[in-house]
């Protein structure tokens, strides 16, 4: 068997080994806790960075959407103005065509009346000339 002094030395060595192991465990635990804290901090920083990027992307998307809506409204207003202008021009052109048709019809009617009037005047003149010829023949025959 071991002597009491050897037992004390052995116990003392075991205590020293246990204290060393406990210090190692405490050091590892502190290291793990420090790493966990770093990881949590890094995750939180990453989340904050991602949240900032997402916020920036949302702002950019919102700005682009507003710009597109504004441009679409401006294009729609421009298109409506162009439609109104073209409709006005169409109405004006139709009115001009109708006026020209009426003038053409009036000119045709006046031409027809003028032709009829000329034909009537020509017929009267021919009748008058025929009557003069008859009268002159009669005069010649009576004088002759």
Describe what this molecule looks like in 3D.
The chain has 144 residues and is mostly helical. Helix content is 97%, strand content 0%. The protein is built from one helix and no strands. It has one helix spanning 4-143. The longest helix has 140 residues, at 4-143. It starts with a helix and ends with a helix. The model has no long low-confidence stretch (mean pLDDT 93).
Short note summarizing the structure:
By secondary structure, this protein is an all-alpha fold. It is built from 1 helix and no strands. The radius of gyration is 60 Å and the shape is rod-shaped.
Topology:
Layout: H1 4-143
Overall body shape: rod-shaped
Beta-strand percent range: under 5%
Task: Name the quaternary structure.
Answer: single chain
Number of helices: 1
User: Helical content, roughly?
Assistant: over 70%
Label the structural class: mainly alpha
List its salient traits.
single chain, 144 residues, mainly alpha, 1 helix, 0% strand, rod-shaped
């Amino acid at each position: 068997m071991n002597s009491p002094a050897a037992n004390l030395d052995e116990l003392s060595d075991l205590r020293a080994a246990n204290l060393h192991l406990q210090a190692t465990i405490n050091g590892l635990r502190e290291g793990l806790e420090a790493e966990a804290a770093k990881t949590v901090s890094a995750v939180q920083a990453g989340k904050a960075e991602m949240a900032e990027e997402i916020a920036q992307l949302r702002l950019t998307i919102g700005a682009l959407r507003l710009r597109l809506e504004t441009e679409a409204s401006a294009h729609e207003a421009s298109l409506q103005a162009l439609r109104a202008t073209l409709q006005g021009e169409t109405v004006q052109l139709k009115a001009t065509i109708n006026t020209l048709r009426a003038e053409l019809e009036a000119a045709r009617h006046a031409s027809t009346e003028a032709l009829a009037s000329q034909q009537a005047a020509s017929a009267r003149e021919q009748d008058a000339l025929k009557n003069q010829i008859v009268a002159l023949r009669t005069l010649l025959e009576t004088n002759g």
